[in-house]
Write a structure and sequence with these properties.
Helix content: over 70%
Number of helices: 5
Distance between the termini: 29 Å
Number of domains: 1
Number of strands: 0
Shape: globular
Mean pLDDT: 80
Length: 88
């Protein structure tokens, strides 16, 4: 019952993971960002995925000159999928 009441206010696991790269890039609309933030506040597993993604991005950025470009959203999504596969 509680999950039905929270649904408009808190993102699901799948919605959160779908939006993590946009969350990191601060490109979500305010409502979606708040839903993802609320989910992250409650879900240790999704916070761990976010931390892992942030570490991976930091490592990727340290490999090359930033003038060569930062990872594209597609690259970030591919990395996120890989992290999720590794967790299974």
């Amino acid at each position: 019952m509680l999950s039905l009441l929270l649904k408009p206010w808190v993102a699901s696991h799948s919605e959160t993971r779908e939006h993590l790269s946009d969350y990191i890039e601060d490109s979500l609309d305010p409502r979606t960002r708040m839903r993802v933030m609320r989910h992250l506040a409650r879900c240790e597993r999704c916070r761990m995925v976010l931390e892992s993604l942030n570490r991976t991005l930091a490592q990727l950025r340290s490999l090359g000159d930033l003038e060569q470009g930062t990872p594209t959203p597609a690259t970030v999504s591919a990395i996120l999928r890989r992290i999720e596969q590794d967790e299974r």
